[in-house]
Amino acid sequence: MPPGTPLTVRFSPHAVVPSRHPPSVRGGYGTSVCRRLRGSAFYIRVRAYANHGADELSERMSRGGAGGAFALFAILSALPARADFDELAALERSGARVTAAAVDLGNASVLAQLNADTRLTPASLTKLTLTAAALDAWLADKVFRTQLLSAAPLEGGELAGDLVLQGAGDPSLDDHSLWSLAAQLKGAGVTAVRGRLLVNAAPFGVVACETDDRCKALERSDTAYDAPLASVGVDFGTWCISVRPGKPGEPAAVRGCGVMNLPVPVEGTIRTVNAGARETFWVERVTRGGNDVLRVNGNVPVDRPQELYRSMSNPAQGVGLLFAEILREIGIRVGGPVQMGATTLSPTTAVLAEIEGLSVREQLGRMLRFSNNYIADVLTLNLAASVQKVPPTDLSSASRVLSDFLLRAQRSGQLPVPKSPPVLLSGSGLTPENRLSASDLVSLPAYEYRDSRRFPAFYGGMVVPRDSPFEFLRDGSTDWLDRVALKTGTMNDPHSVCGIAGYARKRDGGWMAFAIIVNGGPTLQHVPLRRAMSAARADLEKLLARF
Length: 547
Hints:
This protein is of the alpha+beta class.
């Protein structure tokens, strides 16, 4: 058979033989072959190449059953990547690296593929793995409870001992939560604490920094996204800072968002200038001798009060300092210092106050919609502690629960098991060493689609492009804007990453799952975001036009 000649073949439950019937499925990376061995026959179209003649193809497939299916899968895997995604293929020829796949979830057929088994850096698409794994381990409505505990007696309004702030691995804890705990304590008749305020970081303790950004943030930070990880923290491990202009020429007030006085020193002055003047102020957090200091300077217009966030160097210590200030402002005096560490609770320990965080469903939804890295990695550590029954000491080992889950999901879907496990060193995707393929990612929405119990929470966290807060997603056709729900992933260093994955609705009401990752390559290290998104969107729009 000459190279490029179409060959139509038909699968049946018992044998695979050549057929003259028209194709109904365009074959790709083998998902449909391996997932549709039972039931009625279906068709797949492949192209014969010089190194795989019709006789060899027919002979391998005629063995029938699963063996024939996997033989075909092996042949398809050996063929050159087909340009089902034409725009992405063109981008690949210009120097980018691409993995892409789209699957019909109704019949498990492969609609399009390009290097679907090639593993690339997924960036925040990793969060889809965490979402599916968390929903598999926990109820969607599970909540984490942060408590105030003490074994000391209450003597005339004074707690005659230590007060323990007991963490629960809740990344949604904020200053409102701390005020609620303080109000409950006040309502229980406590006016003073004779002992210390102990921050018990459970269910995991001190976690080593592993990403460059978080390690640098131990010394200084002028942003919010690089907060080190802790099982108890507030406002995603950050100081929330309120800058309130005074009269022009006077200093602006620099306070906490939830407290009148920040519990850390503020060095410098932000000056108030006239309305319409240029805004030049800046805020950074530095750490000296293990203590955080906020440095400020510049000008703020009189009509532009602002709130901003700077990562803490030690979120567990930071939440203790902030809570001690809240207790002071509500009228509860703490006699001892704020200290961190594991605390052994006695049988007489009583719960004095308790606050429930957001449900797992809501936390995962916020993590997906806003790509919150702190939520992702704290939940990864919490999940590992829950599944492995041992407190994790680092994020990379905790992330083993994610790769293990992904392999289980692939096996349950009757997909060919990858020759090597995926590489996941974080749940957020901040680690550029993470490696996932389009095949890996497509298996996640496919797995959740079959689970009516978990599917609503998984799907509900995705963004419909028309409603996206990001302008680059709000371009495109009506089909793209309204029939797609997705998660994005982007990164700039050490190479560019642009990825999208999720669901698309067919015109007949059916569902498709897709995944696309574009990485910078050796000859094109940084692919502009809009260029990568334009190619991915154009190819998905072609699929949406067909289906």
